[in-house]
Specification:
This protein is mainly β and 606 residues long. The chain is rod-shaped and about 220 Å long.
Length: 606
């Protein structure tokens, strides 16, 4: 029958360790944990003892015999050399074990309510401590008197195992006859939460904090019994997540908030968010939110995060992504179509498409007033394009007026740049006439479905400013001689503008060239002849010859006019022979421009 079976049946097996002199092992079955294993000591100085395996030259009370087998798990020592019994004197652990068996019988009779464990506890906890000098181990030596007098309590477990995350445990105390007892822990990480003291049977409850380091163990002493509390170390890394900008898909800035979340058996202590999935340069205290700067530039950006617990375990890399977009949309094309009291706008080609449509109509406007618009697009994150500007002018009709201009009543040529414009019909009427007036009056007129309000007169093909419409207006042509043109634009009350009406005229302010003149004296006469003058624009109209005695007149307005006409020669008679006559010949063109004249002197013959 095995030791365990005996023990469970309430029988206390008492077994000698053996007499081989071993210091680190015992004989079977004393090695069973369900037996009381007994080694031998001397109870007095019995002189030198020689055994089959060893010799004790000196003996003394409580000295372990040299032949007694010994190991750390030996239960108790008892007298085993030399023992007289039944008429024999012998030495051996077989002499020691009957002492213990007898003691168990005594205790069982004295304490009938105690189980085998409690009886064993009485023996081993009340014995005198004796050191085995062979291996340095100490064991209790049987003391029956102390065992019968002791209050003994036992515990149900020798080891309480706690997970690294921390937890609780219990130890059940069995203490007959209302035996008092206490419980205490040898380490600060163990807390006795209840049952720190008691009397009789009871329960000790303990709590263990999370272990952030290597596995550890400590002793919980309950009713004088040692219970080992062991706890594993933390080897599990944290698990966590990172979220950028509350989970937004896009952002306009690289500075964003990140939300960090992690869990761990022993608590998360530090974290490291980064733009890199492969490097970790600096840990910082764990916090659930913090500002973060994404990698520069537009496009998809990621944040990678690691978490570290109090034991130094590092999590796998977690990440989240977001698109940085701070680029404004590109512009497209905008068209403004004016209507009666409204402007219709339409757009296309923008890089961001407006989900509400691509057109709009602005109503309730004042006809004839120009309105300006700018169409911009905004993308999903608020970036706005610079926009496209257009103008629209609402009106009931959009046809420009019909009009015309006639210069100087239709004259084809004038001799001055100071004229009056006359705006008349659509068709220009230019008469081939010449005038020699300082100013002329020209008429203006225009027709339109609406009222004609303004006109713009210009010497060029470009309109510079509008003035109120009038049927006549003074005007100054460009300086100098030559062909000149006047353009006129007409605008009605709603801003519709006509095509330019144009009239032309030639300005001639250039006098003819002087004629080359010769004189031949005659008897009391002078014969004068000249070459034709040249006039570019109007042509030569006439010649004028003036005379004065001795010296030619300074101008053709002085002296005596002796000839006017188109001829190229003149015979001046009635002169006094031997006297000098002075002449000046001037040429006049068709516009009245007069040359400075050619001067000549001649002496008449007698």
């Amino acid at each position: 029958m095995g030791m365990k079976t005996l023990w469970d049946a309430g029988v206390v097996p008492v077994v000698a360790t053996g007499n081989d002199g071993y210091t680190n092992k015992v004989g079977t079955p004393s090695c069973s944990p369900d037996a009381i294993s007994v080694g031998a000591v001397y109870d007095a100085n019995v002189g030198g003892i020689q055994s089959s395996v060893c010799t004790d030259a000196v003996t003394a009370a409580d000295k372990v015999t040299c032949f007694s087998n010994s190991a750390s798990f030996v239960s108790i020592l008892a007298p085993g050399g030399m023992i007289q019994a039944g008429g024999y004197t012998m030495a051996g652990t077989s002499q020691a074990s009957p002492h213990v068996a007898g003691a168990v019988a005594v205790l069982a009779g004295a304490f009938p309510d105690e189980n085998p464990l409690q009886l064993k506890t009485r023996l081993v906890t009340t014995g005198v401590s004796v050191k085995d000098v062979r291996n340095g181990l100490s064991f209790p030596r049987l003391d029956l008197g102390a065992a019968t007098a002791a209050c003994v309590a036992t515990v149900d477990v020798a080891i309480v195992a706690i997970a690294e995350a921390g937890g609780t445990g219990t130890v059940t105390v069995s203490a007959g006859s209302a035996c008092p007892w206490t419980a205490s822990a040898s380490a600060v990480w163990i807390t006795v939460t209840s049952g720190a003291s008691g009397s009789g049977d009871g329960t000790v409850s303990l709590s263990v904090s999370a272990n952030t380091g290597a596995p550890r163990s400590a002793t919980l002493t309950v009713a004088g019994r040692s219970v080992t509390v062991s706890q594993g170390g933390d080897s599990n890394a944290p698990s966590g997540s990172v979220i950028i900008a509350d989970g937004a898909a896009t952002t306009t800035t690289s500075s964003v908030p990140v939300t960090l979340s992690a869990t761990d058996d022993v608590g998360v202590t530090s974290t490291h968010p980064s733009t890199s999935a492969t490097s970790c340069t600096a840990w910082s205290d764990y916090a659930t939110t913090r500002p973060f700067t994404l990698a520069s530039g537009n496009g998809a950006k990621s944040v990678f995060a690691r978490f570290r617990d109090a034991a130094g375990n590092v999590s796998a890399v977690v990440s989240d992504a977001i698109v940085v977009d701070n680029a404004a949309p590109t512009n497209g094309k905008v068209t403004a179509t004016a209507q009666d009291a409204a402007v219709a706008l339409s757009w296309s080609g923008f890089s961001v498409v407006y989900t509400g449509g691509s057109s709009a109509t602005h109503t309730g406007l004042k006809d004839g007033t120009e309105y300006g618009y700018r169409v911009c697009t905004i993308d999903a994150v608020g970036n706005m394009s610079t926009g496209v500007a257009v103008k629209g002018r609402p009106a009931p009709e959009y046809d420009g007026p019909n009009g015309s201009v006639v210069i100087a009543g239709g004259a084809g040529m004038i001799a001055t740049s100071a004229v009056t414009l006359s705006l008349a019909t659509v068709t220009l009427s230019l008469a081939a006439v010449t005038l020699s007036l300082a100013a002329v009056t020209l008429s203006l007129a225009a027709t339109d479905a609406s009222a004609v309000k303004w006109m713009c007169v210009s010497n060029t093909a470009v309109c510079t400013s509008y003035v109120a419409f009038a049927t006549s207006s003074p005007w100054t042509l460009l300086n100098g001689s030559g062909p000149r043109a006047v353009s006129v634009w007409f605008k009605d009350e709603f801003g519709n503008v006509s095509s330019p009406a144009t009239a032309k005229v030639t300005v001639d302010m250039t006098p003819p060239t002087n004629a080359k003149m010769t004189a031949t004296p005659g008897s009391k006469a002078a014969s004068l002849a000249w070459q034709p003058s040249v006039d570019v624009h109007a042509g030569v109209a006439s010649y004028k010859l003036v005379y004065a005695a001795t010296t030619p007149p300074a101008t053709c307005s002085a002296g005596t006019v002796v000839y006017t006409g188109a001829e190229l020669a003149f015979l001046h008679t009635g002169l006094t022979g031997g006297t000098v006559a002075g002449y000046r010949l001037c040429t006049t063109d068709a516009m009245g421009n007069v040359s400075g004249g050619t001067a000549l002197k001649v002496a008449a013959l007698p």
